[in-house]
Amino acid sequence: MSASTAVLRAEARLIGRNRAGVFWVVAFPPLLLTILGLLPSFRAADPALGGLRMVDAYVPVAVLLAVIMSGTQVMPGFLAGYREQGILRRMSTTPVRPLTLLTAQIVLHTLVALGSAVLVIAAGRLIHGVSLPRHLPGYSVALVLAALVALAIGTIIAALVPNTRTATTAATIVFFPLVVSAGLWGPVQVLPEIARRVVELTPFGAAAQALGQAMRGDWPAWSLLAVTALWTVALIAAAARWFRWE
């Protein structure tokens, strides 16, 4: 077994033991969509959404909720804890480099978030009759970009905080603006024109719109993908610059 594989397996076991984190990332988004979809107001066609039901518009929002929670609520605690306990420093003296552990964390949290996205889409389809994404390549591109943005934000949080307690506080402060821009308190499509244009300049506002367009069968607007991609590049560069192993 290679060192990378061993680290990946060990991290997978540790993430699996974090039952609270697994619940909020994997179970909560599809559960939230299921409950909201039972409300009469969510099952009625809405002219403001082009005849779609509110539950149809909330599938991309629930998908982004899983991505945001994985990147900003769960991963920073792991990384800050490893630095606080000196694990990263000790690893630097072994053949297994800290970068291997960081890569394993990013890969695993991405897989967990994508698995939750599949559950959200399945719950929407099986329970509420929501259509599956009609433009799967476009949907996949927008989702991967959103996941990278979330993980970059999580890495930045872990880079700037001194311990796990501060990481939790910082992640909570960051979490709410992100989910608001993603449309948790109202889909981006129903916002006034000026507000929608502003929200579309945020990474998850643009991602929510891109996912919604792909759900309807269109390739996401290049402007939306460009906004998400630029945020991804900028945040990954910042994370690489600010992250410290000790």
UniProtKB/TrEMBL annotation:
The keyword Transmembrane helix applies. Its main location: membrane. Keywords: Membrane, Transmembrane, Transmembrane helix. The keyword Electron transport does not apply. This is Transport permease protein. InterPro entries: ABC-2_transporter (IPR052902), ABC2_TM (IPR013525), ABC2_TM_bact-type (IPR047817). It holds the Pfam family ABC2_membrane_3. It comes from the Bacteria. GO terms for cellular component: membrane. GO terms for molecular function: ABC-type transporter activity. It is a multi-pass membrane protein. It comes from Acrocarpospora macrocephala. Residues 20-246 form the ABC transmembrane type-2 domain. It is found in: Membrane. The chain crosses the membrane at residues 21-45, 57-80, 101-127, 139-161, 168-188, 221-243.
